[in-house]
Amino acid sequence: MIENKTKYDLEVQKVANKPAVKMVLITVGILALAFIVAGIFKLKSELEIGIGFILGGIIVFLVFFFKYEKMLLKNITKGNKQLSENSYQYYCFMDDNIKIEFEKDNKIIGSSLLKYSDVFKVKEIDGYFLIYISKVQMYIVRKSSMVSGSVDDVRKIMKDNVTNYK
Fold it and tell me: Which residues of 13-30 are buried (b: 16+ CB within 10 A; e: fewer)?
C-alpha cells in the first residue's frame, strides 16, 4: 500500500490555478500588446492619444502580471472553508484504485474511491503529481508528503494503470 497525506494549503491552490492564471496573463498580454501597437500607429496623427494607448497597455499588463495571481488566490482563500492549517487530502494507492479521504481538524469529512480507469490523465511536475479526473478537475499529490511507499512507487503504479501519463 502506497500512502500520501497532502496538506491542502495555499501552495496546492497555486498549483491548481496555474493553468488559469497563465491563460489570463496570455490574454491580457495580447490585449496590452494590441493597445501598444494601436498607440504606435496613433502617434503620427494624435500624439496624446497614441501615448495614452501605449501607457495604458503597459500599465494594464504590469498590473495583471504582478498582481493577478495574488488577487485570484486571495479570492479563493476567502471563500474556501476547506483551506486551513488543518486540512489534508489522504491518498491510498491500491492495486485497482485510489482511496481519497478529505480530513479537516483530524476528522474525515469526505471520501472517494477513484478507479484508475476513470483517471483522465496524470501529469508529473516538480514536486507534485496532478491526477486529472476531467480536463479541468484534478487531485494534487505533493511528492514530499509520502507516508508509506515512495514517489517512485506512485510513478510506477500510475504508469502501469493510467494510459495518459505525462
Answer: bebbeeeeeeeeeeebee
For the chain, the C-alpha Rg in angstroms (whole number) is 22
> If phi over 0 gives left and psi between -120 and 50 gives alpha, with beta otherwise, what is residue 105?
left
pLDDT in tens, 123-157: 999 999 999 999 888 999 999 999 999 999 999 99
* Secondary structure class of 40 (helix, strand, coil): helix
Rounded-to-integer distance, Cα 57 and Cα 33, Å: 6
Residues 6+ away with beta carbon under 8 Å from 144:
127
Other C-beta atoms within 10 Å of 87: how many?
19
Report CA 36 to chain centroid distance, whole Å.
Answer: 30
User: Can you give the residue range of the structural domain that contains 42?
Assistant: 10-79
- Domain edge (last residue) among 51, 79, 107: 79
- The answer to whether residue 155 sits within a structural domain is yes
